[in-house]
Amino acid sequence: MNKLTQNVVNILGENGKKWIANLPGTIEILADYWNLSHLVPVDNMSFNYVAKAIDNSNQAVVLKIGFDTSVIADEKRALTYFDGNASIRLIDYNEKYNALLLQQATPGTTLKSLYPANDKFVIDCYVDTVQKLLNKPLNNKNGFRYISDWLKMLDGFKSDKLPEYLLKKAIYLKNTLLVSIKTEIVLHGDLHQDNILKDNDRWLAIDPKGIIGEPEFEIAAFDFIHDTELTNNLDTKKLFLNRMNIIAERSNLSAERIKNWTLVRLILSAVWHIEDNGDPGLSIKLAEMLSDDVVI
User: Fold this and answer.
1) 10 Å Cβ neighbour count for 173?
2) Are residue 99 and residue 229 in the same domain, yes or no?
3) 23 with 9: CB under 8 angstroms?
4) For the range 156-165, what are the long-range contacts, defined as Cβ-Cβ under 8 Å and sequence gap of 24 or more?
């Protein structure tokens, strides 16, 4: 809860404090509304309240409550679209309290917990999940936004915390990439290893953002470098590029576009951190490492 409280207050200020203060009452109302028992909050909450629970049919479920109505509405739309295909299943939605009732993945092991010790296995599982998730053609836009809507915030952004040359490179790359997209589909939008959980003998994606873009943008959310691998810059950079090439080959996608989107996404992540009064350090460090290999 400490990280959740800090993040919400950093973003919303006094309104964030009120949201946190009202949260116990909201949880009680929703537990009664959905007939939930045995609520156990997860230990890695960051921007939403999340708790495991049991419903009145003795099924394991997850209660998720957000402070940002648009984010939860986007997630609800994405979960409805993916409809349990390599994705966690949406059971119900409470618009008034900005809450989702979700299927619980069991045992719920994260793909990240196997990384980087079993990196090749993780890459195989990741690519398999991506390919299953993104196999629906874009027949109807269904109110989904485009990745260009996210990337607009790079234009005109200024901060002493972000090196200007990285921002300029990211803006040039995103403009070039956007006009050359050939295949548009609904993406998860934030598909890193922590957002893929084990459910019996399969892997399921959680926390989808639901945004229209190309598959290479999706793949670029993969955490190519683990925190424990940042000690040697030369070795880390080699590992970074090697994993990128492996995942491109396994997914039959463009390694060059994945690399370029990865740099763009790292700078976008840094901007989001700065906007939310967070620490952009890791995103900037990885972007600096990758920058020389991204030619414009």
Assistant:
1) 22
2) no
3) no
4) 157/271, 159/271, 159/274, 161/270, 161/274, 161/280, 161/284, 162/267, 162/270, 162/271, 162/274, 162/280, 162/284, 163/284, 163/288, 165/291
- Residue at token pair 């300029």: 168
CATH of the domain at 237: 3.90.1200.10
- Which residues contact residue 23 at a Cβ distance below 8 angstroms, ignoring those fewer than 6 apart? 49, 65
Asked if residue 292 has pLDDT above 80, the reply is yes
Q: How many domains does the chain have?
A: 2
Indicate whether 139 and 36 sit together in one domain.
Answer: no
Is residue 221 over pLDDT 90?
yes
pTM score of the predicted model = 0.96
Question: Once rounded to an integer, what is the mean pLDDT over residues 99-119?
Answer: 98
pLDDT band at 137 (very low <50, low <70, confident <90, very high): confident
Verify that 137 and 274 share a domain, yes or no: yes
